[in-house]
Amino acid sequence: MGKLIIDGNKVYTVDEACLKRKNMKLQEVCKKETKAVMHKQQENRQNGIR
User: Fold this and answer.
1) How far, in Å, CA of 48 to CA of 10, rounded?
2) 1-50 pLDDT, tens per residue?
3) Which DSSP symbol is given to 16?
4) Strand partners, 3
5) How far apart are CA 35 and CA 40, in angstroms?
6) Are 30 and 15 in contact (CB under 8 A)?
7) 33 with 7: CB under 8 angstroms?
């Protein structure tokens, strides 16, 4: 079974079995995705894009 990550209008699925094989935790993936989204939002604000 997988988990859903919702990013605005985008939805991603995370395969937990795959994460276990790669020794990654879902929290690590979510944290990494959140940082990427926040970075993109900051870039957009600096460029005047909302």
Assistant:
1) 22
2) 677 878 888 888 887 777 677 776 667 777 887 888 888 888 888 888 76
3) H
4) 14
5) 9
6) no
7) yes
